[in-house]
Amino acid sequence: MNPKISLSFAMKIIAMIVLGAISSGSSMLILFFINKYLLTLTEKNSLVLVAFFGLLIAFLASSILSRIALSTIGNNFVFDMRMKIVKRILDTPNQKITAIGKSNLLASLSSDITSLTNGFTRIPDIIQGCLVIFFASFYIAYLSYEIFIFLLIWMSVTIFISNTSMKNIYKYYGLHRQNEDTLYKDYQTSIEGHRELSLNLERSKRLYNDRFIPNAKSLRSNIIKTEIFSSFASNWISSMMLGAIGVIIYVCLAYKVTTLQDAITIALTILFLRAPIMMVVSSIPSIFKSKIAYEKLKKLDLSEYEAEFNMSENFPQSWDRLTLKNINFRYSPDDGFGLSDINFEINRGEVVFLVGKNGSGKSTLFMILAGLLEPNGGEMYVDDVRITKENLKAYANTISAVFSDFYLFDEVLSDDDKFIDELLKKMFLDKKVSVKDDKFSTLNLSQGQRKRLAMVAALLEKRKFIILDEWAADQDPQFRKMFYKEILTELKKDGYTVFAISHDDAYFDCADKIYSIENGKLSQIK
């Protein structure tokens, strides 16, 4: 963990302790005042009542201010944590994000961040409760050392017995969190595969009955067990505290251990302690959940937090030649398939097609060219600049891409209204889409139209290297012909370099070069 983050966290905890001590100390002053002046009152004394209400007002003010300050510190921390987690996800290489999996990331973003948030916001309760317990224990020891020793033993036995419940709470919360990962996969399947599930009732039934229901039942079972042990722990401690009051009053009266006045004060103190002790006990499950959530987030192995979006300086934004030399890539050492000795060159202004069967390595090579995968071996050059791990992100930011499974953003990253209108007309989208408040008016389009809009967004980035994965596959014959015969020609004329995965052999004459890939090996066929 970053030392600066640790120091910041420590300072927040110290601030919480100081504020909690002020509020807790003022509450003990009220108990001291009751014992010292109210329980010894023998005649009417208005000053005592005025002083008592003065203490109450001071306690109220310090408690409110303390709580506001604690809430501000807590929520600022939560904001900071959320901000850094999302930034770390954005900074993590795409290859690692893919390996982690969408469902695991969504579970962590929704469940784990919420659990960490809840856990941190309970820290003020724990700090304030512990401080009240400390001051109250000190006060009880001041009134009667013997009763303090008795309470220490009594509460130690109480906590020892409840410790088994605490262990089970942690155990079943851990199982509950595992169930959430599984459920998120089921949620993802039911949403992303909804069309296919709608067409196959048997598959839909199996997903629901054989996967979702057992997972949901397991989650329900584990959370119920957690609540049972949590309920036992809190009610056991509460009952034992009430029992301590009865025993103390009995001992004080029967054996004259202390005065009735002190016995009453001690009983009031214990009653006063019930709330902070129960506050601490009720916070423990949230702390357990936050610990499990922290471990889950840590296992994601995201990139370290950096405040800025940094890239290598002096990387050429415009280049004349991209060269791949003996590129090798495998997703894992045990993966039997991968790219082998890929040699490739594309020059400024060229249109290059890549063909190959499914599973031949087309998409993998596409991702390497996009700068989203780092080769295991070989060299990549932009002109005479070698692409390394340090400048890979800078290289990727010289490229515009439309993936086969692209995500279409509604934000428009351009204020060139004339260029936007030209592109929308060229893509036959001007009757359906406009730009308002720097956003596309709608994304509710057919797949072919969405791909055209994705092309518009890519061209608005004004980067001269565009890579396309089966872009023309969803276009009607008329527009497909227009794309190959007119749009590609115009792009080339305007100085664009285009790399496209394509199987439209009727338009292979539009390419300057054509490469074929088979079993991870690349060969030039034109």
Structure description:
The chain is α/β, with parallel strands linked by helices and 526 residues long. Helix content is 63%, strand content 11%. It is built from 13 helices and 12 strands. It has helices at residues 3-38, 46-91, 94-100, 102-143, 145-192, 194-199, 201-255, 260-299, 362-369, 392-396, 417-426, 447-460, 477-493, and strands at 321-329, 339-347, 351-355, 377-382, 385-386, 399-402, 435-436, 439-440, 465-469, 497-501, 513-518, 521-524. The chain has a 6-stranded mixed sheet, sandwiched between helices. A 4-stranded antiparallel sheet has the order 2-1-4-5, with no helix packed on it. Strand 11 and strand 12 form a beta hairpin. Helix 5 runs parallel beside helix 8. The chain is elongated and about 110 Å long. The two termini are 53 Å apart. Residues 1-5 have low confidence and may be disordered.
Using brief descriptors, characterize the structure shown.
526 residues, elongated, disordered N terminus
